[in-house]
């Protein structure tokens, strides 16, 4: 069983469209994250939820909206896609506030905006 | 706020030679330190971590890293690399009381046959 799974794995779309990426973890963790990895492999945190509560919200355009329906799921919706949104988006989870912060990553969702 | 610096973007090394990947961090509070590995088209996987105690930590596949508080470094080493070690390596830091993990810019290890 995959611990952290993301769908879709690949996403090709036109500028201006709206798209969503879904993430689910079956590790029983309390905390989930979205990271963006650009073409130079630089990893930047976008959001984090702890048990459905938003705890980290970095400087991200408000076209990006995370949603956590329960602690096992964290989705990312992107409105009005731009060329610069092309990247690999990684979902990750960790046990929670009292943990050492080890992250468990999904395999990534490669978004290409044309 | 903390920052993590990996000065080497690429490190080519011959198979069976030793390697060191450098990592320096900056933080106003105590941090946990990590090394993650990313193989092509995959997510990141934890390689090893320093939490407290012994400053030398080891992974199951022969890598080790040493925490040096005075030099604020956490360099990764392996005495003899294999082709299968070819990957991107990320150093990361997390404050003890805050869940934000900050990553360095990564070092691509290229093992040459």
Oligomer: heterodimer
Task: Round the mean pLDDT of chain B to the nearest integer and report it.
Answer: 93
Distance between the termini of chain A: 34 Å
Spans where pLDDT lies below 50 across 5 or more residues of chain B: none
Radius of gyration of chain B: 13 Å
H-E order of chain A: EEEEEEEEEEE
The low-pLDDT segments of chain A are none
Helix/sheet category of chain B: mainly beta
* Number of helical stretches of at least 4 residues of chain A: 0
Average of pLDDT of chain A = 92
Tell me the span between the first and last alpha carbons of chain B.
41 Å
Strand count, sense and barrel status of the largest sheet of chain A are: 7 strands, mixed
What is the helix fraction of residues of chain A, given as a range? under 10%
Q: Radius of gyration of chain A over alpha carbons? A: 13 Å
What's the tally of helices of chain B?
Answer: 0
Give an account of the 3D structure.
The complex is a heterodimer of chains A (114) and B (113). By secondary structure, chain A is mostly beta strands. Chain A contains no helices and 11 strands. In chain A, strands 2, 4, 5, 6, 9, 10 and 11 form a 7-stranded mixed β-sheet that branches. A 4-stranded antiparallel β-sheet of chain A has the order 1-3-8-7, with no helix packed on it. The N and C termini of chain A lie far apart (34 Å). In chain A, 32% of the residues are buried. Chain B is mainly β and 113 residues long. In chain B, the strands form 3 sheets. In chain B, strands 2, 5, 6, 10, 11 and 12 form a 6-stranded mixed β-sheet that branches. Chain B has a 4-stranded antiparallel β-sheet with strand order 3-9-8-7, with no helix packed on it. Chain B is globular. The chains are: A mainly beta (114), B mainly beta (113).
